[in-house]
Amino acid sequence: MSHIKDARKAQAAGLDEKNLYASRVRVYPRAVHGMARTFKWGVLAFCLTLYYSAAWIRWDRGPGHPNQALLLDLSNRRFYLFSIEFWPQDIYFLTGALILGAISLFLVTSLVGRVWCAYACPQTVWTDLFMWVERRIEGDRNERMKRDAGPVTFDKVWRKLAKHAVWLGVAFWTGGAWIMYFADAPTVTREFWRGTAPAPVYIFTFIFSAFAYVFAGWAREQVCTYMCPWPRFQASMLDEESITVTYQGWRGEPRGHGRRDPAAVKKLGDCVDCNACVNVCPTGIDIRDGSQLECINCGLCVDACNEIMVKTGQPEWLITWDSLARQKAKAEGKFERFHFLRPRTLIYVGALIAAVSVMGIALARRTHVDLAVQHDRAPLFVTTRDGTLRNAYTIKISNKTLADTEFTLDISGLAGGAMEVAESVTGRATRLTLPVEADSIGTYRVLVYGRPDHLKDGSQELDFLLRSLRTGETARYQSVFMGPGSSAARP
Ligand code: SF4
Ligand code: SF4
What is the mean pLDDT of the chain? Predict the structure, then answer.
Protein backbone atom coordinates (compact mmCIF):
# COMPACT_ATOMS: atom_id res chain seq x y z
CA MET A 1 0.00 0.00 0.00
CA SER A 2 1.35 3.38 -0.91
CA HIS A 3 2.51 5.91 1.64
CA ILE A 4 -0.33 8.20 0.57
CA LYS A 5 -3.01 5.65 1.27
CA ASP A 6 -1.39 4.80 4.59
CA ALA A 7 -1.18 8.44 5.50
CA ARG A 8 -4.76 9.12 4.41
CA LYS A 9 -6.05 6.20 6.47
CA ALA A 10 -3.97 7.31 9.45
CA GLN A 11 -5.38 10.78 9.01
CA ALA A 12 -8.94 9.52 8.94
CA ALA A 13 -8.34 7.39 12.01
CA GLY A 14 -6.52 10.12 13.88
CA LEU A 15 -9.00 12.93 13.28
CA ASP A 16 -10.50 13.12 16.72
CA GLU A 17 -12.11 16.10 18.32
CA LYS A 18 -8.74 17.31 19.66
CA ASN A 19 -7.04 17.16 16.29
CA LEU A 20 -9.28 18.58 13.64
CA TYR A 21 -6.42 19.88 11.53
CA ALA A 22 -4.74 17.37 9.24
CA SER A 23 -1.55 18.42 7.55
CA ARG A 24 -1.26 17.86 3.83
CA VAL A 25 -0.20 14.50 2.54
CA ARG A 26 2.18 15.32 -0.26
CA VAL A 27 1.39 13.66 -3.57
CA TYR A 28 4.29 12.46 -5.73
CA PRO A 29 2.68 11.48 -9.04
CA ARG A 30 4.73 9.16 -11.21
CA ALA A 31 5.17 9.76 -14.93
CA VAL A 32 3.02 7.59 -17.15
CA HIS A 33 2.57 6.99 -20.87
CA GLY A 34 -0.54 6.07 -22.74
CA MET A 35 -3.61 7.29 -24.53
CA ALA A 36 -4.94 9.58 -21.79
CA ARG A 37 -1.50 11.07 -21.13
CA THR A 38 -0.93 11.78 -24.84
CA PHE A 39 -4.32 13.42 -25.15
CA LYS A 40 -3.64 15.44 -22.00
CA TRP A 41 -0.31 16.67 -23.42
CA GLY A 42 -2.07 17.62 -26.66
CA VAL A 43 -4.76 19.66 -24.89
CA LEU A 44 -2.12 21.25 -22.66
CA ALA A 45 -0.01 22.29 -25.66
CA PHE A 46 -3.07 23.69 -27.41
CA CYS A 47 -4.31 25.65 -24.37
CA LEU A 48 -0.89 27.08 -23.52
CA THR A 49 -0.15 28.06 -27.12
CA LEU A 50 -3.53 29.77 -27.36
CA TYR A 51 -3.13 31.56 -24.02
CA TYR A 52 0.41 32.82 -24.58
CA SER A 53 -0.06 33.87 -28.21
CA ALA A 54 -3.69 35.02 -28.68
CA ALA A 55 -3.00 38.53 -27.38
CA TRP A 56 -0.36 38.94 -30.12
CA ILE A 57 -2.78 38.34 -32.99
CA ARG A 58 -3.22 41.61 -34.90
CA TRP A 59 -6.49 42.83 -36.41
CA ASP A 60 -6.56 45.94 -38.56
CA ARG A 61 -9.38 48.28 -37.50
CA GLY A 62 -8.05 51.33 -39.26
CA PRO A 63 -6.02 54.31 -38.05
CA GLY A 64 -6.62 55.49 -34.50
CA HIS A 65 -8.15 52.20 -33.39
CA PRO A 66 -6.51 49.29 -31.54
CA ASN A 67 -5.17 46.61 -33.87
CA GLN A 68 -5.25 43.78 -31.35
CA ALA A 69 -7.69 40.94 -32.15
CA LEU A 70 -8.52 40.23 -28.49
CA LEU A 71 -8.47 43.25 -26.24
CA LEU A 72 -10.30 44.16 -23.07
CA ASP A 73 -9.74 47.92 -23.09
CA LEU A 74 -10.90 48.84 -19.59
CA SER A 75 -9.86 52.48 -19.74
CA ASN A 76 -11.98 53.11 -22.85
CA ARG A 77 -14.63 50.60 -21.77
CA ARG A 78 -14.46 48.47 -24.91
CA PHE A 79 -13.99 44.76 -25.57
CA TYR A 80 -12.62 43.85 -28.99
CA LEU A 81 -13.11 40.35 -30.36
CA PHE A 82 -11.75 40.30 -33.90
CA SER A 83 -14.28 42.28 -35.98
CA ILE A 84 -16.78 42.65 -33.14
CA GLU A 85 -16.57 45.53 -30.72
CA PHE A 86 -18.56 45.32 -27.50
CA TRP A 87 -19.61 48.42 -25.57
CA PRO A 88 -20.64 48.46 -21.89
CA GLN A 89 -24.28 48.36 -23.04
CA ASP A 90 -23.56 44.95 -24.61
CA ILE A 91 -22.80 43.36 -21.23
CA TYR A 92 -25.70 40.97 -21.76
CA PHE A 93 -23.56 39.18 -24.37
CA LEU A 94 -21.09 38.38 -21.60
CA THR A 95 -23.96 37.07 -19.48
CA GLY A 96 -25.13 35.00 -22.47
CA ALA A 97 -21.62 33.63 -23.04
CA LEU A 98 -21.37 32.61 -19.38
CA ILE A 99 -24.77 30.91 -19.55
CA LEU A 100 -23.70 29.09 -22.73
CA GLY A 101 -20.47 27.97 -21.05
CA ALA A 102 -22.33 26.76 -17.96
CA ILE A 103 -24.93 24.76 -19.93
CA SER A 104 -22.19 23.23 -22.12
CA LEU A 105 -20.30 22.22 -19.00
CA PHE A 106 -23.45 20.67 -17.50
CA LEU A 107 -24.08 18.70 -20.69
CA VAL A 108 -20.51 17.47 -21.07
CA THR A 109 -20.32 16.53 -17.37
CA SER A 110 -23.56 14.57 -17.52
CA LEU A 111 -22.25 12.69 -20.57
CA VAL A 112 -18.58 12.09 -19.81
CA GLY A 113 -17.89 13.32 -16.28
CA ARG A 114 -15.27 15.88 -15.33
CA VAL A 115 -13.41 16.15 -18.63
CA TRP A 116 -13.12 19.89 -18.14
CA CYS A 117 -11.30 19.34 -14.83
CA ALA A 118 -9.20 16.57 -16.35
CA TYR A 119 -7.91 18.33 -19.42
CA ALA A 120 -8.82 21.97 -19.96
CA CYS A 121 -9.20 23.67 -16.57
CA PRO A 122 -6.36 26.22 -16.14
CA GLN A 123 -5.54 24.74 -12.73
CA THR A 124 -5.02 21.31 -14.35
CA VAL A 125 -3.08 22.67 -17.30
CA TRP A 126 -0.61 24.71 -15.26
CA THR A 127 -0.27 22.07 -12.54
CA ASP A 128 0.67 19.58 -15.28
CA LEU A 129 3.21 22.04 -16.66
CA PHE A 130 4.73 22.67 -13.22
CA MET A 131 4.87 18.92 -12.52
CA TRP A 132 6.65 18.38 -15.82
CA VAL A 133 9.26 20.97 -14.81
CA GLU A 134 9.60 19.28 -11.42
CA ARG A 135 10.15 15.88 -13.03
CA ARG A 136 12.77 17.24 -15.42
CA ILE A 137 14.77 18.74 -12.56
CA GLU A 138 14.11 16.50 -9.57
CA GLY A 139 13.39 13.20 -11.29
CA ASP A 140 10.40 10.89 -11.14
CA ARG A 141 8.35 9.88 -8.11
CA ASN A 142 10.80 7.52 -6.35
CA GLU A 143 13.77 9.81 -6.82
CA ARG A 144 11.84 12.79 -5.47
CA MET A 145 10.47 10.89 -2.50
CA LYS A 146 13.90 9.55 -1.61
CA ARG A 147 15.55 12.95 -1.88
CA ASP A 148 12.83 14.70 0.13
CA ALA A 149 13.11 12.14 2.90
CA GLY A 150 16.92 12.35 2.94
CA PRO A 151 19.29 14.90 4.47
CA VAL A 152 20.03 18.32 3.02
CA THR A 153 22.72 17.90 0.38
CA PHE A 154 24.14 20.10 -2.34
CA ASP A 155 22.29 18.01 -4.92
CA LYS A 156 18.99 18.51 -3.10
CA VAL A 157 19.48 22.25 -2.67
CA TRP A 158 20.45 23.09 -6.23
CA ARG A 159 17.62 21.02 -7.66
CA LYS A 160 15.06 22.69 -5.41
CA LEU A 161 16.44 26.13 -6.21
CA ALA A 162 16.47 25.38 -9.94
CA LYS A 163 12.90 24.06 -9.83
CA HIS A 164 11.57 27.10 -8.02
CA ALA A 165 13.50 29.43 -10.31
CA VAL A 166 11.90 27.82 -13.38
CA TRP A 167 8.50 27.78 -11.68
CA LEU A 168 8.82 31.48 -10.93
CA GLY A 169 9.85 32.11 -14.54
CA VAL A 170 6.80 30.23 -15.87
CA ALA A 171 4.55 31.98 -13.33
CA PHE A 172 5.89 35.37 -14.38
CA TRP A 173 5.39 34.51 -18.04
CA THR A 174 1.84 33.40 -17.24
CA GLY A 175 0.96 36.46 -15.16
CA GLY A 176 2.55 38.77 -17.72
CA ALA A 177 0.67 37.12 -20.60
CA TRP A 178 -2.62 37.86 -18.84
CA ILE A 179 -1.84 41.59 -18.78
CA MET A 180 -1.44 41.55 -22.57
CA TYR A 181 -5.18 41.04 -22.96
CA PHE A 182 -5.82 44.40 -21.24
CA ALA A 183 -3.41 46.58 -23.21
CA ASP A 184 -1.70 46.60 -26.59
CA ALA A 185 0.65 43.62 -26.21
CA PRO A 186 3.78 44.94 -28.02
CA THR A 187 3.46 48.38 -26.41
CA VAL A 188 2.93 47.15 -22.86
CA THR A 189 5.80 44.64 -23.23
CA ARG A 190 8.17 47.40 -24.37
CA GLU A 191 7.05 49.72 -21.59
CA PHE A 192 7.28 46.95 -19.02
CA TRP A 193 10.96 46.26 -19.72
CA ARG A 194 11.81 49.94 -20.04
CA GLY A 195 10.21 50.56 -16.64
CA THR A 196 7.74 53.06 -18.09
CA ALA A 197 4.55 50.97 -17.87
CA PRO A 198 1.79 52.24 -15.57
CA ALA A 199 2.02 51.00 -11.96
CA PRO A 200 -1.07 48.72 -12.24
CA VAL A 201 0.73 46.72 -14.96
CA TYR A 202 3.52 45.81 -12.52
CA ILE A 203 1.13 45.27 -9.62
CA PHE A 204 -1.22 42.96 -11.53
CA THR A 205 1.64 41.08 -13.21
CA PHE A 206 2.97 40.38 -9.73
CA ILE A 207 -0.45 39.31 -8.40
CA PHE A 208 -1.23 36.99 -11.33
CA SER A 209 2.29 35.52 -11.27
CA ALA A 210 1.98 34.86 -7.55
CA PHE A 211 -1.34 33.09 -8.08
CA ALA A 212 0.15 30.89 -10.83
CA TYR A 213 3.19 30.01 -8.69
CA VAL A 214 1.21 29.20 -5.54
CA PHE A 215 -1.74 27.43 -7.18
CA ALA A 216 0.15 25.33 -9.75
CA GLY A 217 3.42 24.85 -7.86
CA TRP A 218 2.40 24.48 -4.23
CA ALA A 219 -1.36 23.99 -3.84
CA ARG A 220 -1.95 21.75 -6.89
CA GLU A 221 -4.64 19.12 -6.18
CA GLN A 222 -5.70 20.98 -3.03
CA VAL A 223 -7.22 23.71 -5.20
CA CYS A 224 -9.46 21.11 -6.86
CA THR A 225 -10.28 19.28 -3.64
CA TYR A 226 -10.76 22.12 -1.17
CA MET A 227 -11.09 25.42 -3.03
CA CYS A 228 -13.00 24.74 -6.22
CA PRO A 229 -16.80 24.54 -5.83
CA TRP A 230 -17.27 22.56 -9.05
CA PRO A 231 -16.56 19.05 -7.60
CA ARG A 232 -19.22 19.73 -4.97
CA PHE A 233 -22.09 20.29 -7.32
CA GLN A 234 -20.93 18.33 -10.38
CA ALA A 235 -22.26 15.21 -8.61
CA SER A 236 -25.77 16.51 -9.27
CA MET A 237 -25.07 16.30 -13.03
CA LEU A 238 -23.88 12.73 -12.93
CA ASP A 239 -26.08 9.67 -12.96
CA GLU A 240 -25.65 5.94 -13.49
CA GLU A 241 -25.30 6.46 -17.23
CA SER A 242 -22.53 9.09 -17.10
CA ILE A 243 -19.21 7.83 -18.40
CA THR A 244 -16.45 8.20 -15.83
CA VAL A 245 -13.13 6.57 -15.07
CA THR A 246 -14.08 3.29 -13.42
CA TYR A 247 -12.25 0.37 -11.86
CA GLN A 248 -13.91 -2.84 -13.01
CA GLY A 249 -14.05 -4.46 -9.60
CA TRP A 250 -15.99 -7.46 -10.87
CA ARG A 251 -12.96 -8.25 -13.00
CA GLY A 252 -10.15 -7.08 -10.73
CA GLU A 253 -11.22 -8.59 -7.40
CA PRO A 254 -10.05 -10.37 -5.40
CA ARG A 255 -6.86 -8.47 -5.97
CA GLY A 256 -3.49 -9.87 -5.06
CA HIS A 257 0.06 -10.59 -6.09
CA GLY A 258 1.13 -13.88 -7.53
CA ARG A 259 0.41 -16.10 -10.50
CA ARG A 260 -3.02 -16.31 -12.06
CA ASP A 261 -3.24 -20.09 -11.98
CA PRO A 262 -6.59 -21.42 -13.27
CA ALA A 263 -6.09 -24.51 -11.15
CA ALA A 264 -5.50 -22.57 -7.93
CA VAL A 265 -8.02 -22.99 -5.11
CA LYS A 266 -8.09 -19.27 -4.37
CA LYS A 267 -8.75 -17.56 -7.69
CA LEU A 268 -7.34 -14.06 -8.05
CA GLY A 269 -8.86 -11.27 -10.07
CA ASP A 270 -6.93 -9.29 -12.67
CA CYS A 271 -5.72 -6.61 -10.24
CA VAL A 272 -2.20 -7.47 -9.14
CA ASP A 273 -2.36 -4.83 -6.40
CA CYS A 274 0.70 -3.06 -7.76
CA ASN A 275 -0.54 0.42 -6.86
CA ALA A 276 0.59 1.81 -10.21
CA CYS A 277 -2.83 3.46 -10.59
CA VAL A 278 -2.43 5.21 -7.23
CA ASN A 279 1.15 6.24 -7.88
CA VAL A 280 0.34 8.12 -11.09
CA CYS A 281 -2.79 9.81 -9.75
CA PRO A 282 -2.30 13.61 -9.56
CA THR A 283 -4.71 13.76 -6.61
CA GLY A 284 -3.24 10.75 -4.82
CA ILE A 285 -6.41 8.65 -4.62
CA ASP A 286 -7.13 5.00 -5.27
CA ILE A 287 -9.71 4.59 -8.03
CA ARG A 288 -10.40 1.09 -6.75
CA ASP A 289 -12.20 2.66 -3.78
CA GLY A 290 -14.94 3.82 -6.16
CA SER A 291 -16.12 7.24 -7.30
CA GLN A 292 -14.52 10.01 -5.23
CA LEU A 293 -14.79 13.78 -5.04
CA GLU A 294 -11.03 14.13 -5.61
CA CYS A 295 -11.07 12.23 -8.92
CA ILE A 296 -10.73 14.64 -11.82
CA ASN A 297 -11.37 11.88 -14.37
CA CYS A 298 -8.02 12.37 -16.08
CA GLY A 299 -7.58 8.70 -16.97
CA LEU A 300 -3.88 8.53 -16.04
CA CYS A 301 -4.69 5.52 -13.86
CA VAL A 302 -6.15 3.89 -17.00
CA ASP A 303 -2.80 4.32 -18.75
CA ALA A 304 -0.88 3.04 -15.71
CA CYS A 305 -3.06 -0.03 -15.34
CA ASN A 306 -2.93 -0.81 -19.04
CA GLU A 307 0.88 -0.87 -18.81
CA ILE A 308 0.63 -3.39 -15.97
CA MET A 309 -1.96 -5.50 -17.76
CA VAL A 310 0.33 -5.75 -20.79
CA LYS A 311 3.24 -6.72 -18.57
CA THR A 312 1.23 -9.39 -16.76
CA GLY A 313 -0.26 -10.71 -19.99
CA GLN A 314 -3.85 -9.86 -19.08
CA PRO A 315 -6.46 -7.97 -21.10
CA GLU A 316 -6.15 -4.18 -20.91
CA TRP A 317 -8.80 -1.75 -19.60
CA LEU A 318 -9.17 -3.13 -16.10
CA ILE A 319 -9.59 0.55 -15.29
CA THR A 320 -11.58 2.13 -18.08
CA TRP A 321 -14.15 4.77 -19.03
CA ASP A 322 -17.58 3.35 -18.41
CA SER A 323 -20.95 4.02 -16.79
CA LEU A 324 -22.07 2.57 -13.48
CA ALA A 325 -25.11 1.02 -15.18
CA ARG A 326 -22.91 -0.85 -17.66
CA GLN A 327 -20.56 -1.94 -14.89
CA LYS A 328 -23.47 -3.37 -12.89
CA ALA A 329 -24.66 -5.25 -15.96
CA LYS A 330 -21.16 -6.53 -16.76
CA ALA A 331 -20.76 -7.77 -13.18
CA GLU A 332 -23.88 -9.90 -13.77
CA GLY A 333 -22.54 -11.11 -17.11
CA LYS A 334 -24.99 -9.01 -19.12
CA PHE A 335 -24.46 -6.47 -21.86
CA GLU A 336 -25.68 -2.93 -21.55
CA ARG A 337 -25.46 -0.13 -24.14
CA PHE A 338 -24.34 3.42 -23.47
CA HIS A 339 -27.34 5.70 -23.04
CA PHE A 340 -26.50 9.19 -24.22
CA LEU A 341 -30.08 10.32 -24.74
CA ARG A 342 -31.51 10.67 -21.26
CA PRO A 343 -33.97 13.20 -19.80
CA ARG A 344 -31.21 15.29 -18.25
CA THR A 345 -28.98 15.34 -21.35
CA LEU A 346 -31.99 16.18 -23.52
CA ILE A 347 -32.88 19.05 -21.18
CA TYR A 348 -29.31 20.35 -21.37
CA VAL A 349 -29.29 20.01 -25.19
CA GLY A 350 -32.63 21.87 -25.37
CA ALA A 351 -31.34 24.62 -23.10
CA LEU A 352 -28.14 24.84 -25.14
CA ILE A 353 -30.02 25.12 -28.44
CA ALA A 354 -32.26 27.82 -26.93
CA ALA A 355 -29.29 29.76 -25.53
CA VAL A 356 -27.32 29.51 -28.82
CA SER A 357 -30.39 30.64 -30.79
CA VAL A 358 -31.03 33.63 -28.53
CA MET A 359 -27.36 34.63 -28.62
CA GLY A 360 -27.15 34.15 -32.38
CA ILE A 361 -30.27 36.24 -33.04
CA ALA A 362 -29.12 38.94 -30.60
CA LEU A 363 -25.71 39.07 -32.28
CA ALA A 364 -27.19 39.15 -35.78
CA ARG A 365 -29.65 41.92 -34.84
CA ARG A 366 -27.11 43.91 -32.91
CA THR A 367 -26.88 47.41 -34.36
CA HIS A 368 -23.98 49.84 -34.28
CA VAL A 369 -26.12 52.71 -33.14
CA ASP A 370 -27.74 53.48 -29.81
CA LEU A 371 -29.95 56.34 -28.77
CA ALA A 372 -30.58 57.58 -25.25
CA VAL A 373 -32.79 60.57 -24.46
CA GLN A 374 -33.17 62.43 -21.20
CA HIS A 375 -35.92 64.99 -20.68
CA ASP A 376 -34.88 68.15 -18.81
CA ARG A 377 -36.42 68.15 -15.35
CA ALA A 378 -36.19 71.83 -14.63
CA PRO A 379 -38.01 73.43 -16.24
CA LEU A 380 -40.22 70.66 -17.67
CA PHE A 381 -41.42 73.02 -20.36
CA VAL A 382 -41.26 76.67 -21.40
CA THR A 383 -44.03 78.61 -23.06
CA THR A 384 -42.58 80.86 -25.76
CA ARG A 385 -43.89 84.28 -26.77
CA ASP A 386 -45.95 82.88 -29.66
CA GLY A 387 -47.65 80.41 -27.29
CA THR A 388 -45.70 77.37 -28.47
CA LEU A 389 -44.42 74.95 -25.85
CA ARG A 390 -40.73 74.08 -25.70
CA ASN A 391 -39.24 70.97 -24.07
CA ALA A 392 -35.50 70.38 -23.82
CA TYR A 393 -33.82 66.97 -24.11
CA THR A 394 -30.28 65.67 -23.83
CA ILE A 395 -29.69 63.30 -26.72
CA LYS A 396 -26.85 60.78 -26.59
CA ILE A 397 -25.99 59.02 -29.86
CA SER A 398 -23.62 56.05 -29.68
CA ASN A 399 -21.72 55.58 -32.91
CA LYS A 400 -20.28 52.09 -32.50
CA THR A 401 -18.72 52.03 -35.96
CA LEU A 402 -15.12 52.90 -36.71
CA ALA A 403 -16.07 55.73 -39.11
CA ASP A 404 -17.34 59.27 -38.52
CA THR A 405 -21.07 59.16 -39.23
CA GLU A 406 -23.95 61.56 -39.76
CA PHE A 407 -27.33 60.72 -38.27
CA THR A 408 -30.78 62.12 -38.94
CA LEU A 409 -33.05 62.70 -35.98
CA ASP A 410 -36.83 62.82 -36.41
CA ILE A 411 -39.72 62.98 -34.01
CA SER A 412 -43.06 61.29 -34.31
CA GLY A 413 -46.24 61.60 -32.29
CA LEU A 414 -46.19 65.37 -32.00
CA ALA A 415 -48.26 66.93 -34.75
CA GLY A 416 -46.60 70.01 -36.17
CA GLY A 417 -43.58 69.54 -33.91
CA ALA A 418 -40.18 70.98 -34.74
CA MET A 419 -36.68 70.77 -33.31
CA GLU A 420 -33.47 72.68 -33.07
CA VAL A 421 -30.10 72.07 -31.50
CA ALA A 422 -29.73 74.39 -28.52
CA GLU A 423 -27.40 77.32 -29.09
CA SER A 424 -27.17 76.63 -32.84
CA VAL A 425 -28.04 79.11 -35.53
CA THR A 426 -29.69 76.69 -37.94
CA GLY A 427 -33.18 77.35 -36.62
CA ARG A 428 -36.14 75.03 -36.22
CA ALA A 429 -36.60 72.03 -38.50
CA THR A 430 -38.61 68.84 -38.61
CA ARG A 431 -35.41 66.82 -39.07
CA LEU A 432 -31.94 67.37 -37.65
CA THR A 433 -28.67 66.10 -39.05
CA LEU A 434 -26.18 65.32 -36.29
CA PRO A 435 -22.57 64.21 -36.88
CA VAL A 436 -20.89 61.84 -34.42
CA GLU A 437 -17.23 60.85 -34.45
CA ALA A 438 -16.21 57.24 -34.94
CA ASP A 439 -16.43 54.91 -31.94
CA SER A 440 -17.79 57.56 -29.63
CA ILE A 441 -20.90 59.05 -28.09
CA GLY A 442 -22.22 62.35 -29.46
CA THR A 443 -24.18 64.46 -26.97
CA TYR A 444 -26.62 67.17 -28.11
CA ARG A 445 -29.11 69.32 -26.30
CA VAL A 446 -32.19 69.41 -28.49
CA LEU A 447 -35.17 71.74 -28.08
CA VAL A 448 -38.53 70.39 -29.26
CA TYR A 449 -41.45 72.74 -30.03
CA GLY A 450 -45.12 71.75 -30.04
CA ARG A 451 -48.60 73.28 -29.79
CA PRO A 452 -50.37 73.02 -26.39
CA ASP A 453 -53.70 72.24 -28.08
CA HIS A 454 -52.26 68.90 -29.28
CA LEU A 455 -51.56 67.68 -25.76
CA LYS A 456 -53.82 65.28 -23.93
CA ASP A 457 -53.89 65.77 -20.15
CA GLY A 458 -50.94 68.09 -20.47
CA SER A 459 -48.55 65.62 -22.08
CA GLN A 460 -47.99 63.68 -25.25
CA GLU A 461 -45.94 60.59 -26.11
CA LEU A 462 -43.03 61.49 -28.32
CA ASP A 463 -40.73 59.12 -30.24
CA PHE A 464 -37.24 60.09 -31.31
CA LEU A 465 -36.11 58.26 -34.45
CA LEU A 466 -32.44 58.07 -35.32
CA ARG A 467 -31.04 56.89 -38.62
CA SER A 468 -27.43 56.45 -39.70
CA LEU A 469 -26.87 58.09 -43.09
CA ARG A 470 -23.89 55.79 -43.65
CA THR A 471 -25.24 52.35 -42.70
CA GLY A 472 -28.99 52.94 -42.65
CA GLU A 473 -29.23 51.46 -39.14
CA THR A 474 -31.92 52.95 -36.95
CA ALA A 475 -32.72 53.41 -33.27
CA ARG A 476 -35.85 54.63 -31.53
CA TYR A 477 -36.40 56.13 -28.11
CA GLN A 478 -39.80 56.68 -26.55
CA SER A 479 -40.05 59.86 -24.51
CA VAL A 480 -42.72 62.38 -23.59
CA PHE A 481 -43.52 66.01 -24.41
CA MET A 482 -44.99 68.02 -21.55
CA GLY A 483 -47.04 71.11 -21.06
CA PRO A 484 -49.27 72.78 -18.47
CA GLY A 485 -51.49 70.29 -16.66
CA SER A 486 -49.21 67.27 -17.08
CA SER A 487 -49.00 65.10 -13.97
CA ALA A 488 -45.23 65.62 -13.72
CA ALA A 489 -45.72 69.38 -13.72
CA ARG A 490 -48.21 69.34 -10.87
CA PRO A 491 -46.83 70.23 -7.43
S1 SF4 B 1 -8.25 8.28 -9.92
FE2 SF4 B 1 -7.51 8.11 -12.03
S3 SF4 B 1 -8.89 9.41 -13.20
FE4 SF4 B 1 -9.15 9.94 -11.05
S5 SF4 B 1 -7.75 11.66 -10.74
FE6 SF4 B 1 -6.66 9.79 -10.15
S7 SF4 B 1 -5.57 9.19 -12.02
FE8 SF4 B 1 -7.11 10.67 -12.64
S1 SF4 C 1 -2.72 -0.46 -11.71
FE2 SF4 C 1 -4.28 -1.98 -12.17
S3 SF4 C 1 -3.38 -3.86 -11.40
FE4 SF4 C 1 -2.23 -2.23 -10.46
S5 SF4 C 1 -3.29 -1.84 -8.53
FE6 SF4 C 1 -4.17 -0.47 -10.02
S7 SF4 C 1 -5.96 -1.57 -10.76
FE8 SF4 C 1 -4.65 -3.09 -9.77
Answer: 92
